[in-house]
Amino acid sequence: MSTPSLLKSFIKNPRNTSYQGRDEDENVILVVRKSLIAIYGWVFTFILFLIIPLFLVPMLSDLEFEGLKLLGTGFIYCLTAFWYLFSLGFAFQSFLNWYFEVLLVTNKKVIDIDHACTNISETTLRNIQDVTSKMHSNWEHVLNIGSVHIQTAAEREEFEFDSIDNPSFVRDAISDLIAEQKDHHGV
């Protein structure tokens, strides 16, 4: 069973992908998000949030003081509903943060969209001075997950993309685009 293309963390030559400010002759080459493995932390937390009421509600409903129930059934239902609403909100917010933090690589630029589209940075391929990929642990080598650091001569000096799939491919693709552009413009 394959992952739907909207939920992939690494999309090469995506169809129907654009962004505001794209030039007519500009094509999106890569769309890169954090690896799906990187989201297991908040997914595990969400599952834990779903399980907690199964243990907590019976304990709360059994609380008594001098033979009287401390918490009414209506209060416990409201508390449980609030807890599940909070849990769904947490999962939805975490998903949106993952989905909308994206690196776009085009044949002209690198665009970094962070924090649910509130911080967008871009640089032209001509401004890129160095592209480095790093894998910090043995697990990252096994899972082929790492970081890509792009050093630029622009106002924002460095772009960092952590926990992405296939960082060496992303590094090579950007380096190839830079070399192609230099050959094309005779620099």
What this model shows, in words?
This protein is α+β, with helices and mostly antiparallel strands and 187 residues long. It folds into 2 domains: 5-34 and 103-185, Pleckstrin-homology domain (PH domain)/Phosphotyrosine-binding domain (PTB) (PH-domain like), CATH 2.30.29.30; 40-96. Helices cover 40% and strands 28% of the residues. The protein is built from 4 helices and 10 strands. The strands form 3 sheets. The protein has a 5-stranded antiparallel β-sheet. Strands 8-9-10 form a 3-stranded antiparallel β-sheet. A two-stranded antiparallel sheet has the order 3-4. The longest helix is centred in the middle third of the chain and has 28 residues, at 73-100. The relative contact order is 0.14. The mean pLDDT is 85.
* Silhouette: elongated
SSE pattern: EEHEEHEEEEHEEH
Low-confidence stretches: none
Question: Quick check: average pLDDT?
Answer: 85
> Considering DSSP H and I runs of 4 or more, what fraction of the residues is helical?
40-55%
| Percent range for β-strand residues | 25-35%
Mind summarizing the main beta sheet? 5 strands, antiparallel
Name the descriptors:
187 residues, alpha+beta, PH-domain like, 5-stranded antiparallel β-sheet, 3-stranded antiparallel β-sheet, elongated
